[in-house]
């Protein structure tokens, strides 16, 4: 097994050396140990409380439960002890390798709460230039508990760039404690529908979003892979994607960065669906046709693989054929997500930043993603089924297994 993180990307502090600090007198160290023990009890209580409350949570309507969850995240509690396992990639830093996937905090409403949940990084969004209510269908979100999956066809529900900026501006500088923010951005479905050239409409939207958000973002993820916005996935396989969309966005971002004059570089990533636009699993050739020109051009720094699956939705959820099929996330998505991550790593080479997502419900799943070639992993559905404990469990396991992975 080869080590995915070249040593040059890692800082000495990441290589497991204990930082040297001043010696404490015995009374102080006893007090600190007692404080640590109390803190551990409080964390354990919160973590097991989720499992105890699960029979109640699963009876709540899913969208209501989500809103309630966001409310709880506003409480000033620290739910999890954050794991320290810093990751660095070309100027992008986060405090460990396990993050929260897009869709959970679409409007950056609870970023400090996600920090207190112990995330290494968070992908906020999908953010749109203007507000959009999402798909007006019912139901839009369902738990498939036996399969440990979620079925959703929310579409892009966004309060718009202005509100997201207000939320980000209100963040205290100390609120993040090393948690990175990736901004997941997408074209506005209303404009896309009306545009003569959807790719150019998407480009204009994404440019506005990058311009507005770059001060707060540690990186960007372009989302052309949501299954719930008509016409979106076809943009991904357009021959003009690189020249008409990625290159102008990338140029604009680099221009904004050089105007900043801080030498800071934010990765520009693309989020992939688990299947092509014909809803067939990617094969090596058609995936190569999409991602190789983007990576080789240097305008795309990496990929997030994968978004939810329409193919699984059509087999797992019975709907009239004309109805919006939605997408499946959670456990059934994992095999395909792992297959795509491994193809992505092979095709994009060792330097690309690859984030794996899809069906992480236990620590071993996160390890499997790293073994398949991911640098980082992110979770959504697993948090619903396992609660906040999952974040720390995955981050700690990845940290503990690092020396073993390096030796192999
Ligand atoms: C309810 C819900 C909403 C989502 N919204 C978005 C979104 O707005 N943008 C996006 O790129 N992905 C979105 N996703 C996809 C997730 O970010 C993630 O890629 C996918 O769910 C697979 O990970 P999981 O199996 O851990 O949930 C959403 C997923 C769910 C379940």
Folded structure, characterized:
The chain is an alpha/beta fold. It has a single domain (60-407), classed as Aldolase class I (TIM Barrel), CATH 3.20.20. Helices cover 43% and strands 15% of the residues. It has helices at residues 26-57, 62-73, 111-116, 161-169, 189-194, 198-213, 232-236, 241-260, 284-297, 310-316, 334-348, 363-372, 381-386, 389-407, and strands spanning 87-89, 92-94, 98-100, 121-127, 132-133, 141-144, 149-152, 157-158, 180-185, 219-223, 268-272, 302-305, 327-330, 353-357, 376-379. Strand 11, helix 9 and strand 12 (302-305) form a beta-alpha-beta unit. Helix 6 (198-213) packs parallel to helix 8 (241-260), helix 9 (284-297) crosses helix 11 and helix 11 runs parallel beside helix 12. Residues 1-22 have low confidence and may be disordered.
> How much of the polypeptide forms β-strand, as a percent range?
5-15%
What overall geometry do the principal axes of the alpha carbons give?
A: globular
Provide the domain count. 1
CATH topology: TIM Barrel
Which parts are unreliable, with pLDDT below 50 for 5 consecutive residues or more? 1-22
Bound molecules: flavin mononucleotide
What is the CATH class designation? Alpha Beta
Any idea what the CATH superfamily is called? Aldolase class I
Q: Which sheet architecture does the biggest sheet show?
A: 8 strands, parallel, barrel
| Average residue-wise pLDDT | 87
The counted number of beta strands is 15
CATH architecture: Alpha-Beta Barrel
Distance between the termini: 6 Å
Radius of gyration: 21 Å
Supply the number of helical segments: 14
């Amino acid at each position: 097994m080869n080590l995915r993180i070249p040593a040059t990307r890692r800082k000495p502090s990441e290589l497991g050396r204990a930082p040297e600090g001043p010696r404490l007198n015995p009374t102080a160290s006893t007090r600190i140990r007692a404080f640590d023990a109390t803190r551990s009890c409080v964390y354990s209580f919160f973590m097991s409380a989720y499992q105890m409350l699960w029979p109640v949570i699963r009876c709540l309507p899913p969208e209501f439960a989500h809103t309630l969850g966001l409310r709880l995240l506003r409480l000033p509690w620290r739910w999890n002890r954050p794991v320290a396992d810093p990751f660095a990639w070309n100027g992008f830093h986060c405090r460990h390798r396990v993050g929260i996937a897009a869709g959970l905090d679409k409007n950056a409403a609870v970023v400090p709460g996600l920090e207190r949940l112990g995330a290494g990084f968070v992908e906020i969004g999908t953010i749109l230039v203007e507000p959009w209510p999402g798909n007006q269908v019912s139901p839009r979100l369902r738990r498939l508990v036996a399969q440990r999956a979620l079925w959703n066809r929310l579409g892009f529900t966004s309060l718009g760039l202005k509100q997201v900026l207000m939320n980000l501006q209100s963040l205290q500088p100390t609120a993040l404690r090393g948690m990175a923010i990736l901004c997941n951005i997408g074209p506005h479905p209303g404009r896309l529908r009306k545009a003569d050239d959807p790719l150019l409409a998407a480009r204009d939207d994404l440019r506005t979003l990058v311009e507005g958000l770059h001060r707060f973002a540690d990186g960007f993820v372009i989302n052309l892979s949501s299954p719930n916005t008509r016409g979106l996935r076809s943009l991904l396989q357009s021959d003009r994607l690189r020249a008409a969309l990625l290159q102008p966005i990338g140029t604009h971002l680099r221009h904004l960065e050089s105007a900043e004059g801080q030498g800071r570089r934010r990765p520009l990533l693309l989020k992939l669906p688990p299947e092509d636009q014909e809803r067939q699993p990617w094969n090596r050739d058609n995936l190569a046709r999409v991602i190789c020109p983007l990576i080789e051009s240097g305008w795309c720094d990496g990929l997030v693989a994968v978004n939810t699956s329409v193919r699984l939705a059509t087999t797992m959820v019975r709907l009239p054929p004309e109805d919006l099929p939605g997408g499946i996330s959670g456990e059934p998505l994992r095999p395909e997500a792992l297959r795509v991550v491994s193809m992505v790593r092979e095709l994009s080479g060792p330097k690309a930043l690859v984030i794996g997502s899809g069906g992480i419900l236990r620590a071993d799943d996160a390890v499997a993603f790293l073994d398949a070639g991911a640098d980082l992993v992110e979770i959504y559905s697993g948090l619903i089924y396992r609660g906040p404990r999952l974040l720390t469990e995955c981050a700690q396991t990845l940290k503990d297994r690092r020396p073993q992975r390096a030796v192999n």
